[in-house]
Amino acid sequence: KNEVEQSPQNLTAQEGEFITINCSYSVGISALHWLQQHPGGGIVSLFMLSSGKKKHGRLIATINIQEKHSSLHITASHPRDSAVYICAVGMDSNYQLIWGAGTKLIIKP
Amino acid sequence: EAGVVQSPRYKIIEKKQPVAFWCNPISGHNTLYWYLQNLGQGPELLIRYENEEAVDDSQLPKDRFSAERLKGVDSTLKIQPAELGDSAVYLCASSLGGLAGPGEELFFGEGSRLTVL
Predict the structure, then answer these.
(1) How far is CA B64 from each of CA B16, B17, B18, B76, B78, rounded to the nearest angstrom?
(2) Closest CA to B5 of B28, B30, B29, B22
(3) B42 and A42 in contact by Cβ < 8 A?
């Protein structure tokens, strides 16, 4: 069992739909990162959170430390949101980041 | 403010040839990371620097890979000789560093895509 699991692996939706990507982890963490990677592009950090909820524009990230679960939501999705979204956790004990496999999101116009 | 800058963006070489990648982190960032990313997979850490010191190079294949970060700013990652299996994207990232550890935000470069023929 992977220490960081994301779901779904692939998600295709229509423009305007509300999107949810989930991340579950099994280790003690100091912080959880949500990152975005466009095809052929570099990785962009979207959020880093250790508790509660953060919002930036149409993106919302939540984390439940007790349940070891985080969600990334996209409201009013747009084709330019099409990318791979990656969850990565920073462990309590060291600096290592454990990466999820990513969720490939396609938003159709 | 400029982000993390990497070069070259793309490199195609024949196997057994050497290759080098360069990274300029965000100004003031003490921690620098080199990651390897294979297609469809998450990044794998190769080496982490705190200033000029390599504090973790346990995942770096030292028979052919080497890295340096002179003066604690720019860094280079070298492969000599390259093998077919080295084809991947090499990502550089930086963070402020210090005691913040894994709770720090990472800033990534665009990556250097290597193709070994």
Answers:
(1) 10, 11, 9, 14, 8
(2) B22
(3) no
Question: Sign (positive/negative) of CA torsion A17, A24, A84, B100?
Answer: positive
Residues of A in contact with B6 (CB under 8 A): 42
Condensed to tens digits (0 to 9), the pLDDT of residues A54-65 reads 999 999 999 999
Distances (CA, A) of B4 to A7, A61, A90, A97, B94: 30, 24, 21, 19, 7
Give yes or no for a contact between A46 and A62, defined as CB atoms under 8 angstroms apart. no
Asked whether residue B101 carries a pLDDT value surpassing 70, the answer given is: no
Q: For the residues A33-54, what does the mean pLDDT come to? A: 88
Would you say the C-alpha torsion A46, A54, A24, A16 has a positive or negative sign? negative
Out of B45, B107, B111, the one facing A45 most closely (by C-beta) is B107
pLDDT digits (tens, 9 = 90+) for B15-67: 999 999 999 999 989 899 999 998 878 888 899 998 899 988 988 999 999 99
Higher pLDDT: A48 or A74? It is A74
State the Cα–Cα distance between residues B10 and B7, nearest whole angstrom: 8
Tokens in use for B64? Answer: 């052919």
Angle at B111 between CA B36 and CA A25, to 5 degrees: 50
